[in-house]
Amino acid sequence: MTLKKVEDIKELQIGLTSRCTGSCKFCFRMELINCYQWGGYPAVDIDAKHLFKVIDSLPNLKNILLIGNKGEVICHPEINYIIKELKSRSKIESIYMATNGSSKKKIFWRWLGTILGEHDNVVFAIDGLQDTHHIYRKSKFDTVFGNMIEFIKGGGNAWWQFIVFKHNQHQVEEARKLAKSVGCRQFIVMASRRYDDEFERPVDCDEISQKTKFELALERIDDRKVSCESKINGRVYMTTNGLMFPCCRLACFYSENAYRDPLQLSTKILVSQSRGIISTYRHSVEEILNSDFFRRTFDHLDDEFTDNPLTGVEYTCWRFCRFIDYQKQNIRREENLC
Ligand code: SF4
Ligand code: SF4
Fold first, then answer.
1. Terminal CA-to-CA distance of the chain, rounded, Å?
2. CB under 8 Å to 299, separation ≥6 — which residues?
3. In angstroms, what is the span from residue 229 Cα to ligand 2's centroid?
């Protein structure tokens, strides 16, 4: 897959909104709030009409991923309209959504289960049971679990995602059984992206790696092969303000000034040419795919990693997307419950 023509795009991941009622400590959103010392996160919602203009310009688009990297997708004020519009386009074969499941009333979740189809899936983040889920997620287990049940009753395919910490590791098996008994299609166990003294890593746990993805990446320095799921799947990522990035990871590192390493070539491109070069308001998707920013990433995936940030594979790709099969087995395991 070359990912240079508009026809090459098969999947679009969308950050619908920066709103969220949660406050998970290791979320990129919380890091930004702390970094900028904001009292709260500024609310930015994707413009729904603009979103569908972009969607309608992608002739071979099949799969939609509603997964923000600093917001909860269902908090978009027009989420019902967006879902209905997505379902009305025959070219869209599947919608994959990730949610904390704690916002919205039960009637919304029942409706969502009704309108989504056999090929659509919603991942609910439930990190424990009644006495532990709230510790990291700060939301009530009964609320999230109840919303997931409504969604299942409506006919939706629910996946239960469980991030394992020391405080909940003893409940993974019980949660797995509960997920199966209520009709979840998948159960996912995941390592956290970070641990600290407040949220400690699991101990002697067979379920998942006790190390984070980044720690494993540093250990496996000689494992050089980068496997780019964006390039393999024909996927790009669109932010709430209409910027297009090769993926959500690069969006994390390059959408915020405070996070950009000034020495990285991608930063230099964005500074010298402005963020406008990847804005869907200013350019067609094909122009963005052929921008210096996109080419810097996609044309160098097979290059050696070097300590020089101006050459070789992009640092973010090297850090996150090596030894993918090993990662799947150790950082995020998906189990079919059907
Ligand atoms: S619910 Fe999701 S978007 Fe909200 S703070 Fe937690 S991880 Fe971040
Ligand atoms: S970080 Fe790089 S290799 Fe990984 S999905 Fe994004 S563009 Fe591809």
1. 32
2. none
3. 7
Q: From the CA of 69, how far away is ligand 2's center (Å)?
A: 14
| Atom 3 of ligand 1, nearest CA residue | 71
Q: Give yes or no for residue 39 having a pLDDT over 80.
A: no
Tens of pLDDT, residue by residue over 177-197, are 999 999 999 999 999 999 999
Q: Which residues contact 325 (CB under 8 A, 6 or more apart)?
A: none
Q: What is the mean pLDDT of residues 46-53?
A: 98
CB of 190 closer than 8 Å to CB of 331 = yes
Residue among 17, 20, 103, 124 whose CB has most ligand 1 atoms within 8 A, to mutate: 20
Task: Let me know: does 76 contact 45? Beta carbons within 8 Å.
Answer: yes
Gap from CA of 311 to ligand 1 centroid (Å): 34
d(CA 138, CA 103): 12
Please name each of the domains of the chain with its CATH number. Answer: 6-259+323-336 (3.20.20.70)
Supply 315's token pair: 């640092």
| Euclidean distance between CA atoms 285 and 57, whole angstroms | 8
Residue 97 in contact with residue 123, Cβ under 8 Å?
yes
For the chain, percent of residues with pLDDT exceeding 90 = 75
DSSP category for residue 278? G
Atom 6 in ligand 1: which residue has the minimum CA distance? 24
**Cα distance between residue 55 and residue 58, in whole Å:** 6
Task: Tell me if 95 sits within 8 A of 131, measured CB to CB.
Answer: no
Nearest ligand to the CA atom of 316: 2
Residue with tokens 């027009």: 78
Model-level pTM greater than 0.85?
yes
Strands 94-99 and 63-66: parallel
Helices (H), the chain: 28-36, 48-56, 79-88, 106-115, 133-137, 141-153, 172-182, 213-219, 229-233, 248-254, 265-273, 285-289, 292-298, 315-320, 324-330
Per the structure block, which two tokens stand in for 86?
């997505």
